[in-house]
# Entry
Amino acid sequence: MHHLTPWWAGGPTTLDNGALLCARHHTIVHTQLLHGTLTNGRIHWDLTPGRMPQQPRLSDTA
# Structure
């Protein structure tokens, strides 16, 4: 399951925050940093590379 809101950003492991993806598509989502949102029970994908929220590095927070 892919977390739509990442777990590190407080996204729960729930059906409302998840997208079931095969291994290939899950890899594509993470490699291209694609972002999905749940609206009215459907997942809408923004296919613009780089839109997935990224976990801040320790050096970025100082």
